[in-house]
TrEMBL record:
Membrane topology classification: Multi-pass membrane protein
Taxonomic placement: Eukaryota, Viridiplantae, Streptophyta, Embryophyta, Tracheophyta
Chief place of localization: membrane
Single biological process term from Gene Ontology: cellulose biosynthetic process
Name of protein: Cellulose synthase-like protein H1
Binding site for Mn(2+): 271, 295
Active site (UniProt): 142, 457
GO cellular component: endomembrane system; membrane
Length: 750
C-alpha cells in the first residue's frame, strides 16, 4: 500500500537483492575441511610409504586443488544481484535528458563471421527503445571487406523500414533473422494492418538477405561504383584507413563504417586495437559519454536493454559511480545439453558472487563503459574545465586536436555543445585511425583497451577495477543479448585455448592483481577472484599429473590413495561424492539438466587437459621469447533451426595436436586398467578381494573415472571420417603412451 502512495519519482531505479547462501557455504566449508584433512593425512603418513613419488605428487596436486577451491569459495561466499526498473525510469526522466550512447560493433572476417549475422546485430541495436538521435553506431571491420561495407549500406536502407515497424508494434525480438525464424508466425488475433506490414517486412528482409548472400558468394567488383573504389586492390593486412558515414541526420541513428589502417610493420593488437580506434573515431565524431560494445554475433534480444543500463547509470547504488555495466552472455541455438561444455551455464553463482565484491569482470561484449573511465580517470578524480589544457593532453591522447578537444570535455564532465556532423569530421577521424597514431601515447597502456593479452577484456576490466571503480552486472528478462557459442569441438577448444593463454598473460604482465591491490585500489577479494580466472591455464599441469597418477600406481603396484581398509579412504570418497552431488544441486537450481551437468563435469576435465594445457604452453613459449600467439577468430554459424540435429552434437576432430594430451591420458589409463584386470584374473577366486585391496580399489576407480571423462575420445578412437580421431594423432599419442608405461616400469626398480 505504502508503495502506491509513494511518489513514483522517488522509487529507486534499481534494487539490490542479497541471496541466502548458508547451505552452499556450509557444504563448501565441509569440502574444504575434507580437503585439508586429506592434506594433513598425507603429511603424517608420508614416512610410511614404500613409494614416495606418487604420494608426494598427489600431495602437491591436492594442495593446488585446495588453493583453487579456496579462491572459488571467496568469490561465491556472498551472493547478490540487482533488479532494474525501466518503467520507473521513463516516469522519472525525460527522453531529452538521456545521455548519448556510442555503439561499437566489431567484425574481423566476412567468412568466419558471415555478414548476415553482423547485420542482424546492427539492426537489433539500431532498433532499440531509445531516442534515435542519441545513438551512433560504429562498425569496425578488420576484414576490410567491400562486402561488409555493402551489407551495411543496404542494412541502413532496410533499417529505415525496420525501426518504425518494431517501434510501432512493439516487436520483442528486433533481429530479423530471429524474428522471422520458422517458429514465428502470425497469430489469429493480429490486426489486418499488422499482417500486411508483417508480410511486407518479411519480404523486405528476404530481399536484404538475398542481396547480402549474393554479394558474399562471388568476387566483389569494386570498380563499378565510385563509393567502393577505395576497396579496389586492398589487402586486409595492408591498406589505408577507410571511414564512411553510411547514414546521418535521418530518423535513424548515425551509422559509420570503419576499417582502420593496417600495415604489416605495425602490430594491430587484434580486438583491443580495433576497440581503441572505435573509441577515438567516435570521440572525434560524436563523443558520447557512454559507449556500448558488442561482438558481431551478439544481437540485442531485449529492446529495453539500454533503459536497463540507464537505470544503473542514473542510480548508482553506492556513494560512488560504477565504471562499467555488464550484461552477461547467453547463447541462442545452443546445442542441446551443451556437449562441449562451453555455454557457461554454471557461471551464474560466480557472477552473483562478484556482484557482492567489486563487481563482475568485463566480458568483452554487451558492456556499457563510461567514456571517462576508458580515458583513464579514477573515481575520485575531479577535473575542472579551466584546469584541462588541451596542449597537455598530447602525451595521453596523441596529436589530433579534435580528439584532445573532445577528450577535454569528457575529462572535465562539461556539457556537450552542438557538434558538427560526422561527415564533416572524416578527415580528423582518418587521422586517429592510423596505425602509427598511438606511438608515444597512452593508448593501450593507460587509456582505452589495454594491450598485452589475448583476453583484452579481462585485462581492461582489471585495469578499471585497479583504479578503484566498481562494476555492475544486470540480468533482465528476457536476456539482454544473445550470441553464438562455438558450435564444433575444435572451435570450442581454440576459444578455450585463447582464453587460457590470454588470462595467464595477465599474470605475467604489470597488471598483476596482487600488485594492483598493494599499489592501486583493487579490493583484496577481487584480486583473489582475478587469480581464480587468470590461473585457468596453470590448472592443466596438476590435473594432467593427477590424471596420470592412478595409471602410474596400477602399473607399478604403488599407491597414491588411502587403501580401502584405511579410515582415510572415507575422506577421499567423501570429497568425490559430496563435491559431485553439490555441483549437481547447484546445476539443478539453475534448471540445468542431469545430462548437461554430466557434460559440464567431464568437459571441464577434457578442456583443462587439452586447450588449457596448450594455452599454458603458449605463455611459456612467449616468456621464452619463442613465439607469440595470435587471436584466432571463432567461427560463427548461422544454423537454420529445423528440429534437433543429432549430428551437430557429435564430436568432430581435426589434425591439430591440441587433443593429443587427452588421447595419451586415455590410452595410458586404458593400458593400466587392462593391466590391473589381468593381474586380478591371475589371483585365485578366494583371494580376489585381497587382490583388489592390494591393487588399490581407489586407483582403479580413479582410472575408470578418467575413462568416463574421456568417453567421447574413446568413441573417437573407433570412428572414421571427421567423427574419428585422425590416425596420425592416435599413432603419435600411442607412442607417447607406450613411453610413459615404459618409464613407469623403469621407475619401479628405484
Ligand atoms: O583482430 C580482431 C580479432 C577479433 N575481433 C572481434 O572480436 C570479437 C570477438 O571475437 P570472437 O572470435 O568471437 O571471440 P570469442 O572467444 O567469442 O570472444 C570472447 O573472448 C574475447 C577475448 O578472448 C573477447 O574479446 C570477446 O568479447 C568475448 O566474447 C569479434 O566481434 C571479432 O570480430 C576484431 O575486431 N579484430
Ligand atoms: Mn564470439
Amino acid at each position: 500500500m505504502a508503495k502506491d502512495t509513494q511518489d513514483s519519482t522517488s522509487l529507486p531505479l534499481q534494487e539490490n537483492f542479497v541471496h541466502d547462501n548458508k547451505t552452499s557455504r556450509a557444504i563448501e566449508l565441509l569440502i574444504l575441511s575434507l580437503l585439508s584433512s586429506m592434506l594433513i593425512y598425507r603429511v603424517v603418513f608420508l614416512k610410511d610409504q614404500n613409494h614416495y613419488l606418487p604420494w608426494l605428487l598427489a600431495f602437491l596436486c591436492e594442495s593446488w586443488f585446495t588453493f583453487i577451491w579456496v579462491l572459488g569459495m571467496c568469490i561465491k561466499w556472498n551472493q547478490c544481484s540487482i533488479k532494474t526498473y525501466p518503467d520507473r525510469l521513463l516516469k522519472r526522466a525525460n527522453e531529452y535528458e538521456f545521455p548519448m550512447i556510442d555503439i561499437f560493433v566489431t567484425t574481423a572476417d566476412p567468412i568466419l563471421e558471415p555478414c548476415i549475422i553482423t547485420m542482424n546485430t546492427v539492426l537489433s541495436l539500431l532498433a532499440v527503445d531509445y531516442p534515435t538521435d542519441k545513438l551512433a553506431l560504429y562498425l569496425s571491420d578488420d576484414g576490410c571487406s567491400p562486402v561488409t561495407y555493402y551489407s551495411l549500406v543496404e542494412t541502413a536502407k532496410f533499417a529505415k523500414l525496420w525501426i518504425p515497424f518494431c517501434k510501432t508494434y512493439n516487436i520483442q525480438v528486433r533481429a530479423p533473422f530471429r524474428y522471422f525464424s520458422s517458429n514465428s508466425t502470425l497469430l489469429e488475433d493480429d490486426s489486418l494492418e499488422f499482417r500486411h506490414e508483417w508480410k511486407k517486412m518479411k519480404n523486405e528482409y528476404g530481399d536484404l538477405y538475398k542481396k547480402i548472400e549474393l554479394a558474399a558468394e562471388r568476387p566483389f567488383t569494386c570498380e563499378r561504383d565510385p563509393d567502393f573504389a577505395v576497396f579496389c586492390d586492398v589487402q586486409r593486412s595492408d591498406h589505408p584507413a577507410i571511414i564512411k558515414v553510411v547514414s546521418e541526420n535521418t530518423n535513424l541513428p548515425h551509422v559509420i563504417y570503419i576499417s582502420r589502417e593496417k600495415n604489416p610493420k605495425h602490430h594491430h593488437h587484434y580486438k583491443a586495437g580495433a576497440m581503441n580506434i572505435l573509441t577515438r573515431v567516435s570521440g572525434v565524431m560524436t563523443n558520447a559519454p557512454l559507449m556500448l560494445n558488442v561482438d558481431c554475433d551478439m544481437y540485442a534480444n531485449n529492446p529495453q536493454t539500454f533503459l536497463h543500463a540507464l537505470c544503473m547509470v542514473f542510480d548508482d547504488k553506492n556513494d560512488q559511480e560504477c565504471g562499467f555495466f555488464q550484461f552477461p552472455q547467453a547463447f541462442y541455438d545452443g546445442l542441446k545439453d551443451d556437449p562441449f561444455g562451453n555455454q557457461l551455464a554454471n557461471f551464474y553463482y560466480l557472477i552473483n558472487g562478484l556482484s557482492a565484491i567489486q563487481g563482475s569482470f568485463y566480458g568483452g561484449s554487451n558492456c556499457f563503459h563510461r567514456r571517462k573511465v576508458i580515458y583513464g580517470l579514477s573515481p575520485n578524480d575531479e577535473i575542472k574545465t579551466e584546469n584541462v589544457r588541451i596542449e597537455d593532453l598530447h602525451e595521453v591522447f596523441g596529436k589530433s586536436f579534435e580528439l584532445r578537444e573532445s577528450a577535454a570535455h569528457i575529462l572535465s564532465g562539461a556539457k556537450l555543445e552542438n557538434r558538427k556532423s560526422p561527415s564533416s569530421l572524416i578527415e580528423a577521424a582518418i587521422h586517429v585511425a592510423g596505425c602509427s597514431y598511438e606511438y608515444g601515447t597512452d593508448w593501450g597502456k593507460k587509456v582505452g583497451w589495454l594491450y598485452g593479452s589475448l583476453a583484452e577484456d579481462i585485462l581492461t576490466g582489471l585495469g578499471i577495477h585497479g583504479r578503484g571503480w566498481r562494476s555492475v552486472v544486470c540480468l533482465p528478462h528476457p536476456f539482454a543479448f544473445l550470441g553464438c557459442a562455438p558450435s564444433t569441438f575444435p572451435s570450442s577448444l581454440a576459444q578455450q585455448k585463447r582464453w587460457a593463454n590470454g588470462l595467464l598473460e595477465i599474470l605475467v604482465s604489470d597488471k598483476n592483481p596482487i600488485l594492483l591491490t598493494i599499489k592501486g585500489n583493487l579490493w583484496f577479494r577481487q584480486a583473489l577472484a582475478y587469480y581464480w580466472i587468470c590461473l585457468w591455464g596453470a590448472r592443466s599441469i596438476p590435473e594432467l599429473c593427477y590424471a596420470f597418477l592412478p595409471a602410474y600406481c596400477i602399473i607399478t603396484g604403488s599407491h597414491f590413495l588411502p587403501k580401502v581398509n584405511d579410515g582415510a579412504f572415507i575422506i577421499a570418497m567423501g570429497i568425490v561424492i559430496i563435491y559431485n552431488v553439490y555441483v549437481l544441486w547447484e546445476c539443478k537450481r539453475l534448471g540445468v539438466s542431469l545430462r548437461m551437468w554430466w557434460n559440464l563435469q567431464t568437459m571441464a576435465r577434457v578442456t583443462t587437459l587439452t586447450a588449457w594445457l596448450f594455452g599454458f604452453l603458449s605463455v611459456v613459449l612467449k616468456l621464452m621469447g619463442l613465439s607469440n600467439a595470435a587471436f584466432e577468430v571463432t567461427k560463427k554459424e548461422h544454423k537454420s533451426n529445423d528440429g534437433d540435429d543429432k549430428d551437430v552434437c557429435m564430436f568432430t576432430y581435426d589434425k591439430s595436436p591440441i587433443i593429443m594430451p587427452g588421447v595419451v591420458v586415455l590410452l595410458v589409463n586404458m593400458t593400466a586398467l587392462v593391466n590391473g584386470v589381468l593381474r586380478l584374473l591371475k589371483v585365485g577366486h578366494n583371494e580376489i578381494w585381497m587382490g583388489m585391496l592390494g591393487l588399490g580399489l581407489g586407483e582403479m576407480l580413479c582410472s575408470v573415472w578418467v575413462l568416463l571423462c574421456f568417453w567421447e575420445f574413446l568413441k573417437g578412437l573407433f570412428r572414421s571420417g571427421i567423427y574419428g580421431i585422425p590416425s596420425s594423432t592416435i599413432w603419435k599419442s600411442g607412442v607417447l603412451a607406450l613411453l610413459f608405461v615404459h618409464l613407469c616400469r623403469r621407475s619401479q626398480s628405484f
